[in-house]
Design brief:
mainly beta, 5-stranded antiparallel sheet
């Protein structure tokens, strides 16, 4: 995981069900919850992650071509990464240019170094979240 950030162990939850409403057609549905293993990012690291909630729906079709059985599927999934707002703790951020620093070439003062200077892309904080929509199709030959 790098950077000394201890990721957490988490337990994911998922459930699914199918309903065969015709001898050759089955409706499939599912739900999932996946909590993030990433701890709060208040220091130098900025792993952007969040809890995920997913919904799945699809159909599975069974048919034959001659004596060869096939199965086809059409699926769609919607995933939501829950919104989160992260605020960095300035005491955990390294000051890239401490107050009173001078240039290495001529020893001139660098007034722009006064105050907290950081190259941390998540400083002073960030917001994350979003949606992902996935669709797919499958074809299976049974032999």
């Amino acid at each position: 995981h790098g950077g000394g950030t201890p990721f957490r162990d988490v337990v994911n939850f998922s459930a699914g069900a199918g309903w065969r409403y015709l001898p050759w057609v089955e409706l499939l549905v599912g739900v999932a919850y996946q909590p993030t293993p990433v701890p709060p990012q208040t220091g130098r690291t900025s792993y952007v992650d969040g809890d995920l909630v997913g919904l799945t729906a699809g159909h599975r079709f069974r048919f034959q071509v001659g004596n060869v059985p096939f199965e086809a599927g059409l699926y769609v999934q919607a995933w939501r990464m829950m919104d989160q707002v992260v605020y960095k703790d300035p005491s955990k951020i390294i000051d890239e240019f401490p107050d009173g620093v001078v240039t290495s070439l001529d020893g001139n003062p660098m007034p722009e170094a006064d105050g907290l200077q950081t190259n941390n892309p998540g400083f002073p904080g960030y917001r994350s979240g979003g949606w992902t929509l996935v669709s797919g199709a499958s074809l299976r030959l049974e032999f």
